[in-house]
Automatic annotation (TrEMBL):
Residues 1-21 form the signal peptide. Belongs to the bacterial solute-binding protein SsuA/TauA family. This is PhnD/SsuA/transferrin family substrate-binding protein. Coiled coil: none annotated. GO terms for cellular component: periplasmic space. Residues 57-274 form the SsuA/THI5-like domain. Keywords: Signal. InterPro entries: SsuA/THI5 (IPR015168). It comes from the Bacteria. It is found in: Periplasm. It holds the Pfam family NMT1.
Amino acid sequence: MKKIKGALALLAVLSLAGCGAGSPSSGTAESSPEGTSGSGAATALEKVEVGVIPIVDVAPIYLGVKEGIFEKEGLDVKLTLAQGGAAIVPAIMSEQMDFGFSNVTSMIVARSKSLPLKMVAPGGSSTGDTKADFASVMTKPDSGIKEIKDLVGKKVAVNTLNNISDSTISEAVKLAGGDYKKVHFVEMGFPDMTAQLAAGNVDAMAAVEPFVTISEADGNVPIFSNYAEPVDDLTVAVYFTSDDYIKKNPETAAKFARAMTESQKFADENPEKAKAVLPDYTSLEPEVIEKLTMPRYYTEVNEASIEKIAEISLDRGLIEKIPDLTALLPSK
């Protein structure tokens, strides 16, 4: 238990944006160097750089690199840890990176602002279980908050205002019959939430793993998962690139999409192996990793869930109009 709580101190330097935690310091992890052909001659691999965030959602891409899935497609992947999705988008637009990772709300908002970004593969998805998901709204056991509509009039910590957490929570409150406009959201980094909850500065916190597990170790209790409810089978995050990159590099984009999809499938079928790569890019203790609830790693983006997130984003004023989702969603 002490080691689980101690992990909070290790993670205190993390900063969050989009749907995930930032890293203690930016870094890279690369796939194996050049492969060899059957005759023993060196076969040059095409180098691609991918911006990721050090959270459990991106375990499949690390696992895919480790298992040689990307190398099989002829790709030498450089994984660059970013402070958050806000740093990855401009890197893609300026061609400093080839692919990136982001939550779906940020993608919808970006496309609505005429940024030519396109999803190429799914990232993490909700488990669909409101009691056992990798995201959860947590509170103190004596807070008096027992169900979703009890959040009305309360202060709820979210890592980013006007994004996936507050919009999904407000929608859940609305569907539960509560006045979602009276939920007060407070922006702060995930690592700060448990302390602020303990101090009484907020009444609840919208956390993702590993902060759900860490918060539970401190005695806090879950109310519901805002990723499992109110949107069914929510695709939470995706890998993306720019329209221009796809136009210039169609074969590379297709290779990356295939390798990423295979990596997702492998991780979903081998959750313990997915957990085993977490120490490669996070500072999580083994005791924390063992207790984590991992996302589902599906091979397709759930288009219905993206449409619902777009509708919620429009209703909450995050966007002025729903963008062309066909242009945003992965090509079929």
